[in-house]
Amino acid sequence: xxxxxxxxxxxxxxxxxxxxxxxxxxxxxxxxxxxxxxxxxxxxxxxxxxxxxxxxxxxxxxxxxxxxxxxxxxxxxxxxxxxxxxxxxxxxxxxxxxxxxxxxxxxxxxxxxxxxxxxxxxxxxxxxxxxxxxxxxxxxxxxxxxxxxxxxxxxxxxxxxxxxxxxxxxxx
Length: 172
Known about the structure:
By secondary structure, the chain is an all-alpha fold. The chain has 6 helices and no strands. The longest helix is centred in the first third of the chain and has 33 residues. The protein is elongated.
């Protein structure tokens, strides 16, 4: 069985009636694809930040001292929300993306609250001459602040993605 030759301008295997339709991709779908790509990079960045924060927590907690419940709960919430966000991104489910936004935002707020609650942070700010001995605390602050900045970008990108995934509103 031989393949039919393409006649000038017609794609192989069609009768040519859908040619102009198939060649134009709606900008909404392009925006969704771009948004999914950006969200993938942001989710990966958030995962790296969480791994960094967990490493700082576990490696530099003194022996015999318990881990802070707020910090651990923030990490667990963020890891679960990252999994939900990745599922929502891959499957284009706006309800999962909304849950991801809610969970990751709560985790960021808990991290900031933990940072503010930390009395050692105030000591560090009061006496900046001891910054060399407090390098770990500075890394914790930097990781949390970086997480908040990434969370702001994530909220913007995810909201835009959900808006573009929604069916177009018809004028009545």
